[in-house]
Amino acid sequence: MNCSGCHGVDAQGRVGPSLIQISDRRSQLHLIQQITSGQTPPMPKFQAQPQEMADLLSYLNKL
Where in the numbering of this chain does the Cytochrome c domain appear (predicted)? Predict the structure, then answer.
């Protein structure tokens, strides 16, 4: 819901980059830092609960 506006509903990218095979290009630590920091405009800062983050990382690993 939070990601698809920029990354597309199929994760192919729109305003934000494609997330397809992102786990091959970035470590899980880097992905967590990217998601929570908001240091790469226009990506906003997200403060996900631990289970939400685990679910998101699991989803990204499957892309």
Answer: 1-63
CATH of the domain at 22: 1.10.760.10
What stretches of 15-62 show up as alpha helix (H) in DSSP? 22-25, 28-37, 50-62
Residue 13 lies in domain? 4-62
**Number of domains observed in the structure of the chain:** 1
Q: State pTM to two decimals.
A: 0.85
From 24, 3, 26, select the one nearest 13 (Cα to Cα): 3
